[in-house]
Design goal:
It is a single chain. Helices cover 39% and strands 30% of the residues. The radius of gyration is 14 Å and the shape is globular. β4 and β5 form a beta hairpin. It has three helices and five strands; from the N terminus they run αβαββαββ. The chain has one domain: Heat Shock Protein 90. α1 packs parallel to α2. The longest helix is centred in the middle third of the chain and has 21 residues. The chain has a five-stranded mixed sheet with strand order 1-2-3-5-4. It is α+β, with helices and mostly antiparallel strands and 125 residues long.
C-alpha cells in the first residue's frame, strides 16, 4: 500500500462509516504523499482503530482524519466533534500508542479549545 493507496483506503473507510453508522468522516491529506507500503499499511490500521474508537466510545456524528508527510514523518490526526455535557476526560488509546511506539513514533491526545478530541500519531516514513 503506497501513499495513494492509503488515501484511497481511508476514503473508502470514511464512506463505510457514513453509510453504516451515520458518522460523517472528513479526510484531509497532502496532495502528493510518498510513504512505503509498510508505513502506509500501519497508518491505515491506526486510522481504522481510531475511527472505531470514535464509534465505540463517543456519540459523535462527525469525525475527521488528517494525514500529512513532513520531514521524514507521517503525521496522523484522528478526531471527533465536541461532545456536550462537561469537560472531556483524559485518556490514552493504549493499542494506538503501542503501535506508534513499536514503529519508532509517538502519540498523544489533545482536547482542543473548541472541544474536539484529537489523537495525534507521528511515525517515521
Amino acid at each position: 500500500m503506497s501513499g495513494n493507496a492509503l488515501m484511497a483506503a481511508v476514503r473508502e473507510q470514511a464512506d463505510r462509516f457514513n453509510r453504516f453508522y451515520g458518522v460523517e468522516v472528513e479526510v484531509q491529506s497532502d496532495q502528493e504523499m510518498r510513504v512505503g507500503a509498510q508505513v502506509a499499511a500501519e497508518a491505515f490500521r491506526i486510522i481504522s482503530e481510531g475511527l472505531s474508537n470514535v464509534l465505540r466510545h463517543t456519540a459523535a456524528r462527525k469525525a475527521f482524519v488528517r494525514i500529512h508527510a513532513r520531514d521524514g514523518w507521517l503525521q496522523l490526526a484522528i478526531g471527533n466533534e465536541a461532545q456536550s455535557g462537561g469537560a472531556p476526560r483524559s485518556f490514552t488509546p493504549r493499542s494506538i500508542n503501542e503501535r506508534a511506539l513499536s514503529l519508532g513514533g509517538t502519540s498523544f491526545v489533545e482536547n482542543s479549545e473548541d472541544g474536539h478530541t484529537i489523537v495525534h500519531v507521528s511515525i517515521p516514513t
